[in-house]
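Lay summary. Proteins are chains of building blocks that fold into shapes, and those shapes determine what they do. In this project we predict the shape from the chain. Here is one chain we studied, written as its sequence of building blocks.
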Amino acid sequence: QLQLVESGGGLVQPGGSLRLSCKASGFTSDYYAIGWFRQAPGKGREGISCISSISGRTNYADSVKDRFTMSRDSAKNTVYLQMNNLKPEDTAIYYCAASKLHSNWCSRVSGTYNSWGQGTQVTVSS
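And here is the predicted shape, written in a compact code that computers can read:
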């Protein structure tokens, strides 16, 4: 059974850093595109980054570009989201998701993802 579990969320001050983890089980995450999404209170789900299955190419939303970095550890079947210089507007529930899209590119559109984790809360506040 394909499963994704996020961890690493928490409370951090503005300017701080967090690293989120997305642990995959029941499948080899290397063969799937993995995306990170977030949803703030009262707002829609935003696709913030993704990593492709074939080349490991990443793609970021403008809102997080140059602050967030996505990476993959194949040995641990885990994908990470390193978040630096966090801002209050980054406060949201963060989700990872897996897509069967097997390509050199990835999509940040939620409809292309088949399996989702339960989410982890990130709160940026002083």
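What the prediction tells us: DSSP finds no helices and eleven strands in the chain.
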